[in-house]
Amino acid sequence: MIDKDILLSKSVPSFKSKEAIVITFNNVPYYDKRNILFRFQVVIATDYKNTYTIFNYDRIDNPGYGNIGYAEPDGEVSCTPYKSFNLNGNTLSTSSNVGKPGKFVFLLTNCTNDREFIPYGQSYGDSFANEGDSSSTCFSSFSKRFPLFSTTNRSQVCISSNGYITVDQSVTDTKASLTSYYSVLVPFNFDMKSRGKDILYRSTTDQNTLMLIDRNIGLLHSQKNTTSSFKSKEAIIVTFNNVPYYNNRNMIFRYQVVIATDYKNTYSPAAIQDHPYN
C-alpha cells in the first residue's frame, strides 16, 4: 500500500520499501477547543537508499501555522538544510501533488525537490568539484563513445564554478564565450564561488536514473506532438546546489545540467533552475 502511494508520484520510476515508520494523529483536538479536530497521517518509507514521506490528510479544522516542510541542519553539506513544501493549510484534505485529494508524496533524501531534479548526492556516486572562485574541475570518467557536441573520443569534461561546462579545455574565465576556441555548454553564467561540496557531478549508466532522464527528453517530443524512441545509455549530471555569488553569500544559485546519449544522439534535457538568487 505504501509503495503504491509513492509510485503515484511521476518522478518515481520504481520503488520497493524495505522499512517504514507510520505515525497517525487520530482526531487530536485543539488545546482549548475540543470540537476543533485534526486527523492526518505521516509515513516515512525507505529502501535504504532513498527515503520518501507521505502526508495523508483527512480532517484539518484549522490551517495551523503554515510551516509544513522539513529541516536537517546537521545533514550532508550537499543538502539544503531547510525545505518548505508550500502547502496551503486550508486545502490540505482537498489538494494533492499526486492526484489523490489529501495525499502528498515527497522525496527526503538528496534534497531532490518538486521540480524533479535527477537524484544527486554521494550515495548516487557524485563527486564534489573544487572549492574556490573561478575554479575549474575536470573529469574523464565517461565513455569515449559519448558524443559531446557531435564529436566522440573527448578527453575530459570541465565544470567552471561560474556555472558553465567545457569539453577538453579547462577554462576559468568569469564570463563564458559562445564565440571562442573551446566547446561550451552554458545553462547559466555568473561570478560564483564554490564553497566545496556545493557542485556535484557524475557520469552514470544506472538504469533507474536513465529512465528519469528519458522521461524528461520525452517531454520535448510531447510538446512537438512527436514520439520519442530515444533511450539513454549514458549520462553526465552536474548539480549546482546553492552555490553563492562570489562576494555575497546570501545570493545563491541552484540548478542542474544533464547530458544524455544513446551513443548516436546527445541531448541536454534538464537545466532546471530552482532559484537564481535569494
TrEMBL record:
Keywords: Disulfide bond. One of its GO terms (biological process) is cell-matrix adhesion. Residues 13-107, 156-268 form the NIDO domain. This is NIDO domain-containing protein. The lineage of its organism: Eukaryota, Metazoa, Cnidaria, Hydrozoa, Hydroidolina.
